[in-house]
């Protein structure tokens, strides 16, 4: 369960957010403070997963407090509570690693929506840590790509996700769909290294195809497709920051700092992006999202 600290100089705001978290069973509030040095010590002593922090506070503003907490070793995540739309301050908050905003006056629906997305992202991040153990015997696994209801369901589900991100016309989308089908069929205990996954995909192709060359081609197609997905989401965010697709997919499939950087590049009309996308995270999230939606459809 996710733990939270709430830092805001208004007691009523702190109590309201705490009540929403408790009523919606979104996690545990381990402490709250009006800010300043007291707030910093509270966060460091309780070490919550998430700090909900006011942008504007009298003793030390939210950005300054985040900087101090990071300098002193806090590695959790931040949600900024804000009642202003100053783009410079918001941009500075993103640079500091803030991934979500809750706007004042506090709205219960918005708080629940934001924290639900954080819970989902937290689950993904935790899974990323758990899958780093080696799969030395994976090369010995012989995939059984027999037609099955599960396989078809996985392809349809993953295809809908890719469609939402505007990727179905990309060549790499077919590689991604086959990767999801393969992962669903194998039911591996942990997620394989990308090179191993590409190699397994290559071996499923026509017998006369060079598996080494095809593996590299798959890697390039998928990398280009993921880069296009990032650009698509950044473009949606520039057009409408409150767009539900942007709010859902951007922080889930990408590191939000990368999304912000790509948005800045698009604003400057920079066609050649310097952002290095996290391809493994993208495929992992696509795989887990596919599994979750399949479970939801069956329940």
Automatic annotation (TrEMBL):
<feature type="domain" description="Response regulatory">
    <location>
        <begin position="3"/>
        <end position="119"/>
    </location>
</feature>
<keyword id="KW-0597">Phosphoprotein</keyword>
<dbReference type="Pfam" id="PF00072">
    <property type="entry name" value="Response_reg"/>
</dbReference>
<feature type="modified residue" description="4-aspartylphosphate">
    <location>
        <position position="54"/>
    </location>
</feature>
<dbReference type="InterPro" id="IPR001789">
    <property type="entry name" value="Sig_transdc_resp-reg_receiver"/>
</dbReference>
<dbReference type="InterPro" id="IPR013972">
    <property type="entry name" value="YcbB"/>
</dbReference>
<dbReference type="Pfam" id="PF08664">
    <property type="entry name" value="YcbB"/>
</dbReference>
<protein>
    <submittedName>
        <fullName>Response regulator</fullName>
    </submittedName>
</protein>
<dbReference type="InterPro" id="IPR052048">
    <property type="entry name" value="ST_Response_Regulator"/>
</dbReference>
<dbReference type="InterPro" id="IPR011006">
    <property type="entry name" value="CheY-like_superfamily"/>
</dbReference>
């Amino acid at each position: 369960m996710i733990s939270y600290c709430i830092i805001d100089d208004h007691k009523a705001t702190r109590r309201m957010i705490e009540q929403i978290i408790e009523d919606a069973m979104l996690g545990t509030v381990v402490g709250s403070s009006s800010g300043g040095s007291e707030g910093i010590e509270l966060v460091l002593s309780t070490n919550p997963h998430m700090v909900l922090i006011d942008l504007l506070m009298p003793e030390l503003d939210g950005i300054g407090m985040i900087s101090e907490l990071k300098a002193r070793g806090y590695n959790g995540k931040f949600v900024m509570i804000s009642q202003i739309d100053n783009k410079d301050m918001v941009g500075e908050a993103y640079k500091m690693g803030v991934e979500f905003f809750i706007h004042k006056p506090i709205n219960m629906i918005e708080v629940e929506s934001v924290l639900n997305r954080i819970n989902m992202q937290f689950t993904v991040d935790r899974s990323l840590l758990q899958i780093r153990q080696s799969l030395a015997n994976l090369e010995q696994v012989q995939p059984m790509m027999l037609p099955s209801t599960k396989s078809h369901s996985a392809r349809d589900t993953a295809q809908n996700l890719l469609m939402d991100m505007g990727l179905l016309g990309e060549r790499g989308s077919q590689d991604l769909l086959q990767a999801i089908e393969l992962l669903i069929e194998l039911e591996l205990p942990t997620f394989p290294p990308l090179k191993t996954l590409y190699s397994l995909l290559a071996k499923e192709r026509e017998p006369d195809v060079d598996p080494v060359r095809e593996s590299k081609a798959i890697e390039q197609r998928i990398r280009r497709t993921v880069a296009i997905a990032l650009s698509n989401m950044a473009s949606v965010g520039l057009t409408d920051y409150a767009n539900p697709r942007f709010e859902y997919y951007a922080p889930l499939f990408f590191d939000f700092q990368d999304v912000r950087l790509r948005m800045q590049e698009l604003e400057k009309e920079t066609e050649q992006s310097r952002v290095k996308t996290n391809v493994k995270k993208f495929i992992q999230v696509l795989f887990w999202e596919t599994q979750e939606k399949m479970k939801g459809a069956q329940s």
